[in-house]
């Protein structure tokens, strides 16, 4: 039969504490931080899709870059989040150039040129991204593209949903 532990040994076993050292915690947080940085992708831009807008599907693999944003819903034409005019009014217009859209684009050009004057690294590229609802008539898209060209925005990209 083994010997019974002494009172001193019994007391010692009850007083032991487990602590986590600061070095171990820093190692854990560093590993978590590196994991999040590796898995976070900041490639491309975030394109917001309004509720009233249904983009067409495409097999395009090119990621979008930041450009002037024009949204064409079934009801409105929106430039950078600001409603320019109704789609119905643009369709009824007999002229190919849409005056309110042309004014909004020229106003944006003035803003960009002012920024470029104060910041030499910033330049006017004349690029625009059109987010058009898949249900709009092609003649409306054609008028908007023509108006963009008249305002000096020759680099036109169409936003689509990529199907993989």
Cα-based radius of gyration, to the nearest Å = 30 Å
In the predicted model, the low-confidence regions spanning at least 5 consecutive residues are none
Shape: elongated
Number of E strands = 7
Strand content: 15-25%
Oligomer: single chain
Please trace the helix and strand order, writing H or E for each element. HHEEEEHHEHEE
Overall domain count: 2
Q: Give the neighbour order of strands across the main sheet.
A: 4-3-2-5-6
Mean pLDDT: 79
Q: Figure out the total of helices.
A: 5
| Separation, N- and C-terminal Cα atoms | 74 Å
Give the proportion of residues in helices: 25-40%
The biggest beta sheet reads: 5 strands, mixed
Itemize the secondary structure elements and their pairings.
Blueprint: H1 7-14, H2 22-39, E1 57-58, E2 68-72, E3 76-79, E4 82-86, H3 87-92, H4 99-118, E5 127-132, H5 138-150, E6 155-158, E7 161-162
Parallel strand pairs: 1-7, 2-5, 5-6
Antiparallel strand pairs: 2-3, 3-4
Helix pairs in contact: 4-5
